[in-house]
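Q: What would this complex look like in 3D?
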Amino acid sequence: MAKKFCFETVATDKKARVGKLVTPHGEVETPVFLPVGTQASIKSLDRRDLEDMGETEPQMILANTYHLYLRPGADTVAKMGGLHKFMNWDRPILTDSGGFQVFSLGFGIEHQVGKMVDLFSKSMVLGEAVAVDPKELVVRTKLCKIEEDGPTFQSHIDGSVHFFPPEISVETQEKLGADFIVALDECTSPLHDYDYTKTSMERSHRWEVRSLKAAKQRNMFGVIQGGPFEDLRVKSAKFVSENDFFGIGIGGALVSKEKMREILDWIYPHLSPQKPRHLLGIGTIDDIFTGVERGVDIFDCVHPTRIARMGWLLTKTKNFTLDLNKVAYRLDSGPIEEGCGCYTCQHYTRAYLHHLFRARELLAYRLATIHNVYFMMSLMKDIRRAIAEKRFAKLKENWLKLMQS
Amino acid sequence: MAKKFCFETVATDKKARVGKLVTPHGEVETPVFLPVGTQASIKSLDRRDLEDMGETEPQMILANTYHLYLRPGADTVAKMGGLHKFMNWDRPILTDSGGFQVFSLGFGIEHQVGKMVDLFSKSMVLGEAVAVDPKELVVRTKLCKIEEDGPTFQSHIDGSVHFFPPEISVETQEKLGADFIVALDECTSPLHDYDYTKTSMERSHRWEVRSLKAAKQRNMFGVIQGGPFEDLRVKSAKFVSENDFFGIGIGGALVSKEKMREILDWIYPHLSPQKPRHLLGIGTIDDIFTGVERGVDIFDCVHPTRIARMGWLLTKTKNFTLDLNKVAYRLDSGPIEEGCGCYTCQHYTRAYLHHLFRARELLAYRLATIHNVYFMMSLMKDIRRAIAEKRFAKLKENWLKLMQS
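A: Here is my prediction, written as structure tokens for the whole assembly.
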């Protein structure tokens, strides 16, 4: 009987590689970028908006366990036939562990990093630090408390209190029915010191082993932590490579771009080449090039869909961004980007989209999101082709030139 | 050479009639309901969402001159090739005169009727009455002033002041490039007394004659006013029937359901049978039956699209409304309505839509709007068929029974 989940490398160009992920919901070519469907919806899009992208259709998406655990609840999704059926998406789904959100409600707020800000609704979850004592390994904020058994957090929706150990994270993800799941870890803040980061990483490893034991299938990504410290990152990379995880998640890399490069360089020699590598929560276009160049296979980020709702459209121009809110586009009868094959560029002008954003028409968000998702998918396709043709370095150079143009 | 615009009656069932409107953008079968695209967008939908309704696709839509005059401006739309091209809609469009919005900023606010409330954004235009003296025929509020030459209003967007005489209304509508346009009138409030209503109606008639003279094509609807007063309504009906308007608009009918019936009965004998009749800004399902039964051919209303964004779905049940926000639908794996052919019902469950509304996901608004527009289009199709088969009264009875079920 064939394995349900497998990964193989198809082509390489130095450390960059093209791979094939096999899942119960079909194959995925890597490097791949996963649009994020936080609450079982890629904001403003439906199944067909993605399907219509044809060859450029997203191959896999990410959904957030934290959000779905709270609303509508994993049992609800399970009763509705699982996430694929619930949201009408029949290609692969990866769910995260919920850890990042749980901790971004704690340290994130305390350290002013990784706050849960919904840019669309402009609503912000406000936390209040109650007591911080890293030495005691118990950090309390209003919304999150960490103990050896697992974290306890308070819902940002209704204030209810939830104990969320690794076993519950895994059970939740399995009820959701994702193709790939992620082991529960603590995502430390870049502002944590060496001692706290080390203690946290070691606890994360224990949680990840518990996650692995709790899982029914061999479809779990372990997660490398260790903050900005080389020895910890190396230790964590070895831990994830050597344990029986299907894939390797690289967590807490959202620091500076320089530090991310360093971290990826430190861990590279210790990553099992047989396992797919997911740079969690990354990223922007330049970060994707940084990652692919260092052997990363999977990326996910809310960035392209979030900025779309602000009227920022991805284009091959300076900083890759065209701000449709600008009055310069009021009478512009061209598409967002000349030559783009996306539905929006095929049917609507910059002038109309500018109007929709000015008038805060709902349609604006969808049309802009279609373009940005399509743009990311096209980029990943170009990257895969360049690797197969051994010209990845040239492609990267051309794109980064555009960025600074 | 064939006439660009024409109307003929194809079938009748007592006063109810099936007609055919010919426009430069194709034919329209009446009775017809026009979804409203206030700001050049039927909120949350795009061209293809409508196109995909197939035989149930909206035949004609309404866009609001007041809103488009202010933003993006008629010149902008004209430079972009007109409203059809701008918004990518190649079937007929009717624009209103802008009068209703201009006056709803004045009397509407003063009398607490017809306020411009955007239920989605929860934003409300607040007006302040400065001086009211109906006897002097000059009513001032913060946002609107009426004189013989025309109204002057203040923009709800930026507070700028605009003189908006009939000639500007017509010029604006012609720049927008609508198939059908509407003469500028003053829409009085049901709280106005006989004297004010009469004086206002007579001034509206003068404005309408000026509108007619300003128009380049024979595609204008005159508007019947006269408030809740029989003699005024009859006088106004004769005025519109006898002047060279292409069609007849029935304005200010949004009073009580009983009064609307009365008004329609008073004016019926005085309506030219050759002209299509548009009951402006109406309506709900029962109001549509009331109108069709009294010879109305065209309806428009924001109701179905607005309630969709609140999670209220049109169904053949009590009050024709299913409130998807209710917890009862959390685990409901059925479609909004069994047997419905709309895209939403074909692809999504009540449970998923309930979740999207709870989570305030943008997709909720679009999927619900698709259903409600499809529902209205199906209703109108049923009405046309029933008239052609001389069983309109029976159809009406069945629907009103459902409503009270």
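A: To summarize the key features: The CA atoms of residues 181 and 220 of chain A lie 5 Å apart. Confidence is low (pLDDT under 50) at residues 112-141 of chain A.
Q: Very helpful, thank you.
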